[in-house]
Amino acid sequence: MAGTEDFFDHIEKGYATKGDYINMGAAMLNGEAVKNAFVKIPLKTLNRHGLIAGATGTGKTKTLQVLAENLSDKGIPVMLMDLKGDLSGLAQPSPGHAKIDERHEKIGFPFESNSFPVEILSLSEQDGVKLRATVSEFGPVLLSRILDLSETQSGIVSVVFKYCDDQKMPLLDLKDFKKVLQYATGTGKAEFTKEYGRISTSSTGAILRKIIELEQQGAELFFGEKSFDVNDLTRIDDEGRGYINILRLTDIQDRPKLFSTFMLSLLAEIYDTFPEQGDSDKPELILFIDEAHLIFKEASKALLDQIESIVKLIRSKGIGLYFVTQNPTDVPNDVLSQLGLKVQHALRAFTARDRKAIKLTAENYPESDHYDTKEVLTSLGIGEALISALDEKGRPTPLAATLLRAPMSRMDVLTKKELDEVVNSSSLVKKYGEIIDRESAYEILNEKIETAEKLAVKEKSKPAARKTTKRASTRQNPVIKVLTSATFIRGVLGVLKKVMR
Question: For strand 285-289 and strand 78-82, is the pairing parallel, antiparallel, or unpaired?
């Protein structure tokens, strides 16, 4: 019993907070929850990013749901990437269950059922708030990195953006960008060469192929107007709760290029738009990236560098990024080292590779006198996890195997009728529902090419002008012809020679 009391004091001291916090559950010792030994995450450190990892079926999604609910309750808006389609239940209260009550009895506080303000977002043709961005908003550097272009090709992209700026041509969607590339090596070749230097046809061809590859993953639905204002992610409802913005990605799981393109553009836009926040009592916005391995697995070196830079810098804007994946090794080390909160569900050791991964994972957690981390990682049950966070002074908290609290909302998806009700009641759906296709580079260049072709046809059809200048006759006067002939000259010279003799 003394061991339990020491452990309770250890957890209570390690997770003591002066400011507001989220209660994740109760710490466990020898596989049993220690009642009221609460594992608390300070709101102050939630912008230090985090990781939720674990094998399939161990409860990662429910942990994500618990965090999203409690953040919303604290007035912190949330954005969730829902690739599996099982997070929409946040909009409806939990029906409750005897096992949930039993779990909360062990933890030490009663279960409460609740629903939360939800906004459904969409990158595709699914119902919801349409997320779009223009090519101009991406800029040449970000677009080049997304397309994984060489240095020469990136230079051409910069020239295209400069030309469009100089000519006041909006670059809104991908057809605008493709049209300018074609114009640069076609009808407008002379114009580009004079102002910006020669552009290689082979280079523009390579860039066009990269764009087509992106289009095949559905990017034409993403590029365009009306552009999504990232400030709409930070809305608070009438009760002071933050909106939970759920981005449904169930139909683009096999299109990681589109997913990573969107994520990078969103993070870049947030970083450029949000003001510096410094140290504050709570974050401005928390983003959860489910199936995070899809971003890192398909990303180029340039794209990874961009993601790592944003992860390091964006927390000063009050933004927290939380990666949800099966294994911590799915996340690059440079990103993993930036994460303050780690929630590690059970890992399974079926192969030698699995055992190696478990060993590496265990080494990423603080040492504990109460746990053999490698052993605990393989023995955790569903809804249990190892937690390590940062206290309010930025120091790692004690490692705690935790019996996690249950979600307050429904642990299942909404019905079609319920989903329609959420979408139809949204003011943002109406705001971003209209597709705008105003005059841009595509239409301007088509008109320019058409005008040039008409002028060329007109010039060609004009009759050839008659020359009025009198042509000088090449016919020689017969007298002059005789006097200047070689025979006549030789004869005269012969007579003069005789006279002189």
Answer: parallel
Instruction: Give the span between the Cα atoms of 149 and 271, in whole angstroms.
Output: 23
| Token pair recorded at residue 263 | 């994520």
Inform me whether the pLDDT recorded for 274 exceeds 80. yes
Confirm if 270 and 318 have CB atoms less than 8 A apart: no
Per the structure block, which two tokens stand in for 150? Answer: 């060489």
Parallel, antiparallel, or unpaired for β 21-29 and 32-42? antiparallel
Q: Residue 115, exposed/middle/buried by CB under 10 A (0-12, 13-18, 19+)?
A: middle
Q: How far apart are CA 446 and CA 90, in angstroms?
A: 48
Question: Does a cis peptide bond (omega within 30 degrees of 0) precede residue 130?
Answer: no
Q: Are 115 and 418 in contact (CB under 8 A)?
A: no
Structure tokens at 52: 């939720």
- Take residue 287 and report the two structure tokens written for it: 């983003």
Determine contact, residues 85/424, Cβ cutoff 8 Å.
no
Query: Tokens 């206290």 sit at which residue?
Result: 391
| Amino acid of residue 262 | F
Distances (CA, A) of 289 to 264, 322, 357: 12, 6, 21
pLDDT of 162 reads 92
SS3 of 251, please? helix
Q: Are 256 and 290 in contact (CB under 8 A)?
A: no
φ, ψ of residue 195 to 5 degrees: the values are -90, -35
**How far apart (Å, rounded) are the C-alpha atoms in residues 128 and 157?**
33
Confidence of residue 470 (pLDDT cuts 50, 70, 90): low
The torsion angles phi and psi of 41, rounded to 5 degrees, stand at -105, 115
The residue type found at 489 is I
Question: Among 284, 150, 252, which residue's Cα sits nearest to residue 210?
Answer: 150
Say whether pLDDT at 98 is over 90: yes
SS3 content of the chain, % helix, strand, coil (to 5): 50, 15, 35
Whole-number percent of the chain with pLDDT over 70: 88
Closest by Cα among 5, 13, 31 to 106: 31
CA 164 – CA 156 distance, rounded (Å): 12
Tell me whether residue 125 is exposed, middle or buried, using C-beta atoms within 10 angstroms of its C-beta: 0 to 12, 13 to 18, 19 or more: exposed
Say if residues 406 and 106 touch (Cβ distance below 8 Å): no
Asked if 364 contacts 342 with a C-beta cutoff of 8 angstroms, the reply is yes
Which region holds residue 117: left if phi is over 0, alpha if psi is between -120 and 50, else beta?
A: beta
